[in-house]
Amino acid sequence: MNGQPPATSPAAADLASNRAAIAAVARAFDAAWNRHDMGALAALFAPDADFVNVVGMWWKNRDEIETAHRHSHATFLRDSVLAGAVETIKFLGADIATAHVVWELSCQIEPDGRVGKPRHGILLFVMRRDGGEWLIEAAQNTDIVTGALTRAAEKA
User: Does the pLDDT at position 101 exceed 80?
Assistant: First the structure.
């Protein structure tokens, strides 16, 4: 046994349904981002959610998450395009799960006004099912720094 319920069991159907619902939240995050609709993006989060962005800024509720994203999408992220892919979903209990989303961000405006090169990163969502709806309780966003691991490995 691999620790998973048989593919035809009710538990397997519930697992597949929950995986699909969690992946749909990740897709909705991308869609709201690309429409620059920060109200819709914030609605994916629990009211008391936490979000730590790629530079360590920590927003501690849905309103702060919306306000911060609304500002960045009015300025340097106004033309940005986000493309994410769910890499893993791990259930920590019946109503709590993590999802790792690997992303590419293009069309960010640099401080000098030029369009920057695409960035890549990993977004970790901690999600909780509440009344049948999966909401993001916490998010941690990380830029992938090309070559950083290689240099560390060379010193080992």
Answer: yes
